[in-house]
Amino acid sequence: MAIIPDDKDWTWVLERPCPECGFNASKATPATAATMLPAVLPRWQSALRRANVEDRTRPDTWSVLEYAAHVSELFCVFTSRLELMLSEDNPTFADWDQDQAALDGSYSTLDPDDVARDLVQNGLDAAAAFGAVTGDQWGRRGLRSNGSEFTVVTLTGYFMHDVVHHLHDVNA
Fold this sequence. Notes:
Oligomer: single chain
Number of domains: 1
Helix content: 40-55%
Distance between the termini: 25 Å
Largest sheet: 2 strands, antiparallel
Strand order of the largest sheet: 1-2
């Protein structure tokens, strides 16, 4: 069975805590992301050391390996979006189809050690990028192609929810 694409609009997490993972995106700031990202990386590394990391527990849901590869790429996508918001006025983000990215990147066939190494490096790079944001930049804006508007702060909360929620998805 193929993965069921996630086409939900998850921007609601900016208004209330997620009932599944418990993350409260409204409490996230670039400064908290800078400290929280390095703190969660060992949990991802541990998850990737499990036996049968490439096995899907359900045929329509990603494996731990696929989730970790997604999060590794997520770090890059959101670092790029942050940099765009800081360098341009009101940019529109390029679309990112996470399910197509998983297929294009052959996430299910990647080496877990390579994914762990890339995930840590990309996570540390994201932490540094968010940590470099100054308070006067928190209100800078950007748009998704569907019109959803973000500030640097709300982008941070939205991004951090994704990272934490996927830890919940893989029980890490």
